[in-house]
Amino acid sequence: MDSSWMFSTKDVNKIKARMDLRATAGDGLRALSALESYINASDISRGVLDLVRLRVSQINGCAFCVDLHAYDLKQAGESDERIWALAAWRDAPYYSEAERAALALAETATRLHDNPNGVMEPVWDLAAMYYPEGQLAVLVLAIASINAWNRINVANRQVAGAARHAGP
């Protein structure tokens, strides 16, 4: 297998985004940000939303979003154990049944290629047990939104931590 396209450890500090999306597609990014504002203003807890965002970002391999949402969770007081174990949430004792339902929906809706029939009824029904229709709609929007952000950031090779470490 030819791995010449991969970065070596000495190249990590040379990673940079392929383009400045704020300059080239600012209106589009503002539209996605407006959707995020709508989602964040909902009555679904920010903790659940950020767990979903982090888990979807792990699945999609988006280093920028994994870094961002793990940092956000930590800043909000989330325990290290819950952040570290999120990739194995099914086998970890740290998550409520409602969080598990949201994570199952997020994984299933993100991994559509794994099921040609889309989100399976048992997954949907479990989420609907914990989230009334209005919250479920927002949860679906949150899952779609983070998938869009992941694809944008992975395609552009957005650098993990760049937003936090940028100067004024």
Automatic annotation (TrEMBL):
Domain of life: Bacteria
InterPro entries the record matches: AhpD-like, AhpD_core, CMD-like
Cross-referenced NCBIfam families: ahpD_dom (TIGR00778)
Record-annotated Carboxymuconolactone decarboxylase-like domain positions: 30-107
Gene3D superfamilies: AhpD-like
Protein's name in the database: Alkylhydroperoxidase
GO molecular function list: peroxiredoxin activity
